[in-house]
Each structure stands twice: as structure tokens, then as C-alpha cells.
Amino acid sequence: IGLKPSTISITLKKMERDGLIVRQNDENDQRMSRVYLTEHGQCIADKLYALSDTTYQLLMNDISEEELAS
Q1: Which tens digits make up the pLDDT trace of 28-59?
Q2: Full-model pTM
Q3: Smallest Cα–Cα separation from 36: which of 47, 48, 25?
């Protein structure tokens, strides 16, 4: 997706600090970490998905079927 590994690492550290994710070492490959949303992180993700869906619906209400087809 065009992000540098350092950018991803910094973002994950901030998310972990804020209690949004937890990181766990992979049992089979110690070079790899698995990232999981915490309950708090999942709650925020759910709200963002709902907001995204609502915004999409509001934007699409004013577009006709003919406009969508073109």
C-alpha cells in the first residue's frame, strides 16, 4: 500500500500505547508479530465503520441510478 515499514511501526506503537491493539509474537515464527484489536479498538472500529456507511449512504442518496450506471 506504499507505506514504509518505519511508518507502520510508529503507527502500531501509537495504537498500542493508546490501548487500541495488542501485539503477540507468532508461536511458529518468532520473526513475526500478530496484531489484534483490543475491545476498545474494536469499539472504535465499529463506530468508524458505521460512520463510513452513513456517510456513503448520504452521498449516494443524491445520485440517480442513471448517473451510477455511467
Answers
A1: 998 999 999 999 999 999 999 999 999 999 98
A2: 0.72
A3: 25
